[in-house]
Write a structure and sequence with these properties.
Blueprint: E1 11-13, E2 19-21, E3 24-27, E4 40-44, E5 47-52, E6 54-57, E7 69-73, E8 81-84, E9 92-101, E10 110-116, E11 124-131, E12 137-145, E13 150-157, E14 161-170, E15 181-185, E16 188-189, E17 195-197, E18 201-202, E19 207-215, E20 221-227, E21 233-235, E22 242-243, E23 248-255, E24 261-273, E25 276-287, H1 295-299, E26 306-315, E27 323-326, E28 331-334, H2 337-340, E29 341-342, E30 346-347, E31 356-366, E32 369-382, E33 392-393, H3 396-401, E34 408-415, E35 425-430, E36 433-438, E37 454-464, E38 467-471, H4 475-478, E39 496-506, H5 516-530, E40 534-540, H6 543-553, E41 556-560, E42 568-574, E43 578-585, E44 602-610, E45 613-623, H7 630-650, E46 655-661, H8 679-683, E47 687-689, H9 692-696, E48 709-714, E49 727-728, H10 737-740, E50 747-751, E51 770-771, E52 782-789, E53 793-801, E54 806-815, E55 818-825, E56 832-840, E57 843-851
Parallel strand pairs: 17-25, 18-25, 28-32, 33-34, 39-40, 45-46
Antiparallel strand pairs: 1-2, 3-14, 4-5, 5-8, 6-7, 7-14, 8-13, 9-12, 9-14, 10-11, 10-13, 15-16, 15-19, 19-23, 20-22, 20-24, 21-23, 24-25, 26-27, 26-31, 27-28, 29-30, 31-32, 34-35, 34-37, 35-36, 37-38, 39-50, 40-42, 41-42, 43-44, 44-45, 46-48, 47-48, 49-50, 51-52, 52-55, 53-54, 53-56, 56-57
Helix pairs in contact: 5-6
Length: about 850
């Protein structure tokens, strides 16, 4: 098995200087779409491929280049394989591909490559089985078959999944009779007479180029001599001077300048053989080591070099690292996790946009982004040198060219998105093409509403796995409108809050975030920040860690599900506001198979106390069956049906909350656009899915993929829901939240039991002064409001919408003691929840009413 990378160029040369074409087929799986394992044809850039027990995936456990790759499956009797449904002409000299095992678990999965020369009627194994490694690794297999050919990739062993990506097949090489030499330098085929240019290097350092010599003739190639070039260029000794057909040998060309300047050696690399002479010229440029160099020069240096750079900061704390800075020649990133981020405090450097920076450190990269890396770094910020950096106007085509990586730019584009932004990629377009906008999860842009039509966006240019991205830093960069949530001035002591949160494999040693201690500390910080009365949790994988969580929080107690699965559901509740009456698994009328083989709803029956008001609630914490196969969908649907049937028959007058990880969306299922498995709840007026509005507006709770964590209430609680308070928590206060805490965001809502007021107003109930619930409620278009006064006093009765805007004044003047009745006509108002407020000489009472037109 040959492990060298496939040739990347399309031209090669012989000693007789004739130029041949070395064509290839390359499939990167970027253009297709397939979200299920069921066998189906997918049209890709190279043609139609059949994916059987395989899909195109880009989840966090997938390993791929670009935006997606193939995931094959051998679980539960599956036989993952993919194959070409078309023939490649001109045969195959070599086939290469990238391979990895899916996820974090070690697995003895292996791949067998096959080929067919009869249109797929018969398949022939080529090479041995290749065990799938943990990291995505490139493999090459020699083929040397002429004529029409197609390939098949079979997951031949193992009981889990694997990833494959970037399949490359080079044309069969017909041997010529006379010996011939094919010269490949750093994986590029070159002609005799070409100039080999070394990248810029520092004085005293060395740049190498690997030169492969290959015989493409039937007769033996004999290399008699390689003439060494003049300094600062050198060539290594020849390893093998006699080559049969398709055999190769290697030499190394080096550039080691001792002084600054440009260097050339015309015809300095010469290969003499029994077929003639191959000549190439050499060139290179050197800059002085140790001094400050332009960023553009540094970007051309090899990774691992130590450089000193200076410039002005364009991104400081906005992404919580990396920091971006630029000079007059270019831009670059700098990242050091331990230096820039603290698991509790977030970004730790004292730096502002526009500050001057001088830094000495090692060049490196992360997911193709060139940056300063490593712990051995010296830096200093100079606030006195602060200056405003003007973004450079560029087009989408210029963005995609890579010429502006690391620089601050501005672009006039349209965003292919409406609704709110999440931490995700979005397509942008202008007259020159289409590109990618990425919203970083640490920015305030997450949750803001996207602008409509053509807009100007400012941001730095980044790159991720080969795709250039525009990265705005804040709302001003993108002209996005922040979401305003009502009631933020109302103390949580005056409301009841409940949260659903899937804490990815919480406490698991082998799954989810790598560092369980960091995950625990981050979870504590999120819980303290939200400060809710009840948390419904999913994916609790370690009971000891759950107990540590409870002990660390002090004001909370917990309930953990008793089923045997490794991912358990649980509750956390404040002992000061929640009185637990009962808890347990709901199994009545439920099928274990539908609930992911026994992951039954976890019921918590409790009293929630807000002030003097108490409500008894029955909450059902669910973690529905995951994944995107038809069977998974049916199990979610049937579980939803059985749960609703139970609630309808047994809890028809109770305050019910169905909360948790629904593992599907509400408008339509993620499986083939079928009806949502929760359509039965959505369509029934006796239930309200409070979080459906988040899905409708484009929020996502599962990373940047979908809105699958939801909260549903029965009609008994509708009047007391604090409308508009539904939200997806943006934990930007946690550094690296998705990698170190969870792949789900918390989703939560608030309720008001009877009365709640702004913190800017008094909240006093005085014996003898009473404000009644309006009747009827809900109403259309008019209703009656009654209240009682214990003495003659000045009275104001006003109506406000949920944004706090006054919509009507019903009473303003002096009234005598006794019962009072006022009619309120809302003909001119829109449907919604309204607050009416009675103020009497210092005392304030409020209630809610619902207008339904």
């Amino acid at each position: 098995m040959q492990l060298s990378r496939t040739l990347l160029a399309l031209l090669f040369a012989t000693i007789s200087f004739s130029t041949l074409t070395h064509a290839q087929l390359f499939e990167d799986f970027e253009t297709g779409t397939k979200g299920s394992y069921s066998g189906a044809t997918v049209t890709l850039a190279t043609g139609d491929w059949f994916l059987d027990d395989a899909l195109l995936g880009n989840l966090s456990n997938d390993k791929f280049n670009g935006d997606q790759g193939v995931r094959m499956d051998r679980r539960d009797g599956k036989t993952g394989n993919i194959y070409m449904q078309f023939d490649k002409p001109n045969g195959a000299d070599e086939v290469s591909f990238h391979l990895a095992h899916y996820g974090n678990q070690p697995e003895a999965a292996a791949l067998q490559v096959q080929y067919s020369t009869d249109g797929g009627s018969n398949w022939i194994d080529i090479g041995d089985e290749i065990p799938a490694p943990f990291e995505l690794t490139e493999y090459s297999i020699p083929v040397q078959v002429d004529g029409n050919i197609r390939f098949k990739f079979v997951q031949s062993s193992g009981t889990d999944r694997m990833n494959i990506d970037d399949i490359r097949i080079t044309d069969f090489i017909e041997p010529q009779e006379e010996p011939g030499i094919l010269v490949e330098i750093n994986e590029e085929l070159v002609d005799s007479g070409a100039t080999i240019t070394f990248e810029t290097t520092l004085t005293g350092n060395t740049r190498d180029k690997q030169v492969q010599l290959k015989n493409i003739g039937s007769d033996t190639l004999r290399i008699s001599n390689i003439i060494p070039p003049t300094a600062p260029f050198t060539v290594s000794e020849l390893q093998d001077s006699v080559l049969a057909f398709n055999e190769t040998t290697m030499v190394t060309l080096s550039f080691t300048p001792q002084s600054e300047g440009s260097f050339t050696n015309e015809g300095g690399f010469e290969i003499q053989s029994n077929t003639g002479v191959f000549k190439a010229s050499l060139s290179g440029e050197a800059v002085e080591a140790g001094g400050v160099i332009p960023i553009s020069t540094a970007r051309d240096l090899p990774q691992g070099e130590t450089v000193t750079l200076t410039g002005w900061v364009t991104v400081a704390e906005e992404f919580e690292g990396p920091v971006y800075f630029q000079d007059e020649t270019g831009g670059i990133a700098w990242f050091n996790f331990g230096l820039m981020r603290d698991s509790q405090d977030g970004f730790t450097l004292d730096v502002q946009r526009g500050d001057s920076i001088v830094i000495t450190g090692e060049l490196g990269s992360f997911n193709d982004l060139i940056q300063i890396v490593g712990d051995d770094v010296q830096y200093e910020f100079f606030p006195d040198g602060n200056r405003e950096i003007e973004p450079l106007p560029v087009t989408v085509s210029a963005l995609n060219s890579g010429s502006y990586e690391g620089q601050l730019v501005s672009m006039n584009v349209e965003i292919d998105h409406s609704g709110v932004f999440q931490s995700s990629e979005y397509d942008i377009t202008d007259a020159t093409g289409s590109g990618v906008l990425y919203i970083n999860d640490d920015t305030e842009i997450v949750g803001a509403t996207a602008p409509e039509g053509e807009t100007t966006i400012v941001g730095v240019v980044g790159i991720f796995s080969g795709t250039y991205q525009l990265l705005p830093r804040d709302l001003e960069d993108i002209d996005a409108e922040a979401i305003e949530i009502p009631g933020e001035d109302i103390s949580k002591d005056e409301t009841f809050e409940i949260v659903t949160w899937n804490i990815e494999w919480f406490g698991s040693a082998g799954n989810g975030p790598e560092d369980d201690e960091i995950q625990l500390m981050n979870v504590i910080e999120v819980i303290d920040s939200i400060d809710a009365d009840v948390f419904a949790l999913q994916e609790i994988a370690n009971q000891t860690m759950f107990n540590r969580l409870i002990d660390s929080l002090e004001i909370y107690e917990g309930v953990l599900a008793s089923f045997s699965q490794s991912q358990k559901t649980a509750y956390l509740y404040k002992t000061s506001t929640i009185n637990v009456l009962d808890s347990g698994l709901l199994t009545t009328g439920q099928e274990s198979f539908d609930w992911a083989n026994g992951r039954f709803p976890l019921e918590l029956n409790f009293e929630a106390v807000v002030g003097q008001e108490v409500r008894e609630i029955r909450a059902y914490n669910i973690h529905a069956k995951a994944l995107g196969e038809q069977e998974d969908y049916v199990r979610r649907r049937d579980a939803s049906i059985s749960l609703k049937n139970y609630l309808d028959q047994n809890e028809d007058n109770s305050n019910v909350i169905v909360i948790g990880d629904y593992n599907d969306e509400l408008e339509a299922s993620s499986v083939g656009g079928q009806d949502s498995p929760y359509k039965n709840f959505v369509d029934d007026e006796e239930y309200t899915v409070l979080t459906k509005s988040l899905e409708d507006r484009g929020f996502t709770s599962y990373s940047s993929f979908s809105m699958i964590d939801h909260i549903t209430i029965s009609s008994e609680l509708v009047d007391e829901y604090f409308e508009g308070t539904e939200r997806v928590e943006n934990p930007s206060y946690i550094g690296s939240y998705l990698s170190q805490t969870s792949d789900h965001y918390p989703v939560w809502v608030r309720f008001q039991w009877g009365m709640a007021t702004s913190t800017e107003e008094p909240n006093t109930t005085v014996t003898g002064i009473r404000l009644d619930q309006n009747y009827p409620n809900p109403f259309n278009p008019s209703t009656t409001i009654s209240y009682s006064l214990d003495a003659t006093t000045n009275v104001t009765l006003e109506v406000f919408d949920m944004m706090g805007r006054k919509v009507s004044t019903l009473v303003q003047g002096r009234q005598i003691a006794g019962e009072q009745t006022i009619n309120f006509d809302a003909s001119a108002l829109a449907s919604g929840v309204y607050i009416y407020r009675l103020a009497t000489g210092g005392e304030v009472l409020t209630k809610k009413m619902i207008l339904l037109k």
